[in-house]
Amino acid sequence: MAPIHAWLHEVEARDWGVDTSWITGEKVVRAFYPFTAEFFLAKEPSPQIEQQLLSHPHVESVEKVKKYLSIHDQTSSSVLCIRVNPRQIRSTYEDLRKHWSEDLRNADLSLWQQFCFQTKLFPYAYATVEVTNGRLTDWTLLESYPQMDYAPVPFRTLWLQPTFAESRLARGKMTRILLRQSVVNQEEEPVIFEETTEAETISNSVQYIRRLDPDIIFTRGGDTFFPIIAEHAVQVGEGHLCVGRGSRPLRTYVRRANSGSRGHSYMSYGRVFFSQHGVYFDGGRHHYDVGNSFMWKDGNIAGIHELVRLGCSDPQRIARGTIGTTLSAVQMRTAYYQDILIPARKADPESFRPAWTMETDVGGLVFSPRVGFHANVAELDFLSMYPNIMVHRNVSPETVNCTCCVSSKRQLVPLTNYHVCTKRPGIISLSLKNILRRRQYYKAKRNVHPDYDRRQKVLKWLLVTCFGYTGYRNARFGRIESHEAISAYSRHGLTLTQQIASRYGLEVVAGIVDSVWMKNPQEEPLSHDTVRELRQEVANVVKLPVEHACDYHWIIFLPRRHEPGIGVLNRYYGLKTDGTYRIRGIEIRQSSSPPFVKKLQTNLLKILAKARTREQFQIASQKAKRFMMKCGEELEIGNIPLEDLLITIRPSRSPDEYVNNSRQAIAAKQLAAMGVNIEPGMKIRYLIIDASAKDYKKRVKAEQLLRGKEQYDVTEYQKLLLRAYENLIPPEFEKKDPTLDSFL
């Protein structure tokens, strides 16, 4: 077969090799490549150990090599490289860990990582490929791993969506399956299979898929409904059909009850989330559930493609994975090419230290916001502050308090007794350097093509997460001392910024870790020259990149609900001089808020946007209040569609674990009574029917139970409207009714 230009799309395990799939734009070429996975045993090699390893049926060979046992080692050690049948990676690992649980390294890397690291390929690498008799014999890369201007892969795509008789519950007979080739163009005329029997609907749909031969099938909710389709297919005798390009039949996607195969719940930043287990297709056809993909909204195909390349991991898993999944994968790649062995779990505990040295663990610095209205405010932001600290200050688990730097040449961390290595770059610093460089490049070109903007948005999430992972208990390469050092650099930088602003005669009205808001005490507009000089001096002194983020006509920092004199760090909104808003923490940004409340706040913000001065804002706030009261009257009349009043929550526990009859508990129990499996962290929507009903079951009704004729609790929703208004207007502009106190 003549050499072809193609993109690496899939790697699947076979006995003593892998099947690779390459996209050409017109077809998919599949080719077998002889390959073995690699484990490492971090013990002094001996003939007895080698013989014991070679006795395992899935171990091909054992070889003595030199590697660094950990990120802290400065000299390499002799270890054993164990080459394993890629089809038996997991089972071999489980067998070997019975004898060497703490000594195995690189053993839990995915097949994609094993293959890419060893071959120096990466997902969607563009290459000239030579295939002979179905075997991959050679390739030449036409683009490099660090390359940022790479060609998009010419995927052939298909959008799939079924309809069930009980659509809200995805139950009952499957009435039709809708298919269209465009993922984004919903106006494209779809192909609809709506046969008289489910067997015909499923069979004709699968035949159509195989005829079009898409590389990726997109769905919204497919990780949930594909097992249901598979169950229906088995019931009507079509369970043998294959929806992938391989030989895996539909019946294998059926999930057993109470098997734990639906997904798992986890906590992040104080909230409980549910991660639905994915449905993965085989044979070089992928399935992306955009409803189960955190990255889809910001990144689309281009953003996911960027993360897949960086992490050298399975595209179907990266599309559904957390940010930490990709970040860990990038760090693993860096460690591999530094000849550092990768532990299966965190193996770098916090150093022992006396209790009186714990003052270093104090987190980032904030300047408590001054509650209320502030006119003519400028905002300075440190660009990717924490990632830049890690890169420019070389902060990494192995570089903080290293043993190689003598006291005269070490770099001291401000506000601590720590120091940072000056002799070698840290693994975290090396990993983030490429990500920072890529995001900066993509941001500069985001107006050239939407794909650049999508890539920089997903990279932003990696940079936002990287700091937390240095102190995360399960991070492969994390240590609390590095976490504390980053915070110390951040606090020092913000303190210096405040001091510089004071020298310019400016008043800092708020500061939150990496952002500072400042104004002239007389609230006169700040000149561009003043802000430019200030920004430049801060950048020179702090030695981190700083940008003049924006200027505000006005910005409002909101108080705690029951303590009006105390500002809240994450609740504010401001009208920028370009006419747009920056908004944090109010109902319009809260996922639980009903659409009606969000629409109200959107309209209130439009009214307030006409104000430029304090006096104009006070007049506008009264107009906003009248508009809010009018919306309350609409509620009372009953003109609001029920779907606009649904409240979205994520229950923190299973329905049977609730003791009190809270609203979310009632809704969760209602769904459980219908046979719907509700896990902690799943989204639930409900309508408030009668908040004060004696029968708690009648207080709310889950969305799936609504029939469209329910009466909602007017008083309760009016309270939500009033709160949405009060969360926009600071206390200084609220007109209070006169009381006896006013005349005393």
What does this structure look like?
The structure is a single chain. By secondary structure, the chain is α+β, with helices and mostly antiparallel strands. It folds into five domains: 4-141, DNA Polymerase, chain B, domain 1 (DNA Polymerase, Chain A, domain 1), CATH 3.30.342; 157-212 and 216-283, no CATH class; 359-424 and 474-584, B family DNA polymerase, palm domain (Palm domain of DNA polymerase); 587-640 and 726-743, no CATH class; 642-711, B family DNA polymerase, thumb domain (Topoisomerase I, Chain A, domain 4, Orthogonal Bundle). It has 17 helices and 28 strands.
CATH homologous superfamily caption of the largest domain: B family DNA polymerase, palm domain
Task: Look at the helices and sheets and give the structural class.
Answer: alpha+beta
Fill in the CATH topology of the largest domain.
Answer: Palm domain of DNA polymerase
- CATH class annotation of the largest domain: Alpha Beta
The count of strands amounts to 28
Termini gap:
98 Å
Low-pLDDT stretches: 736-744
Quaternary structure classification: single chain
Number of helices: 17
Q: Write down the overall mean pLDDT.
A: 89
Second CATH tier, the architecture of the largest domain: Alpha-Beta Complex
The radius of gyration is 29 Å
Proportion of beta-strand residues: 15-25%
The largest sheet, given as strand count, sense and whether it forms a barrel, is: 7 strands, antiparallel
List the helices and strands and how they pair.
Layout: E1 4-14, E2 17-23, E3 28-34, E4 37-41, H1 47-54, E5 59-67, E6 77-84, H2 89-100, E7 104-105, H3 111-119, E8 126-132, E9 135-141, E10 157-166, E11 171-180, E12 191-193, H4 198-212, E13 216-219, H5 222-235, E14 263-268, E15 271-276, E16 286-289, H6 296-311, H7 315-320, H8 323-337, E17 366-367, E18 372-382, H9 385-392, E19 411-412, E20 419-420, H10 427-444, H11 450-470, H12 480-503, E21 507-512, E22 515-519, H13 528-542, E23 546-559, E24 567-576, E25 581-584, H14 595-608, H15 614-637, E26 647-649, H16 663-673, E27 684-688, E28 700-702, H17 714-726
Parallel strand pairs: 10-13, 13-16
Antiparallel strand pairs: 1-2, 1-8, 2-3, 4-6, 4-7, 5-6, 8-9, 10-11, 11-12, 14-15, 17-21, 18-22, 18-23, 19-20, 21-22, 23-24, 24-25, 26-27, 27-28
Helix pairs in contact: 6-8, 6-11, 8-10, 8-11, 9-10, 9-12, 10-11, 11-12, 12-13, 14-15, 14-17, 15-17
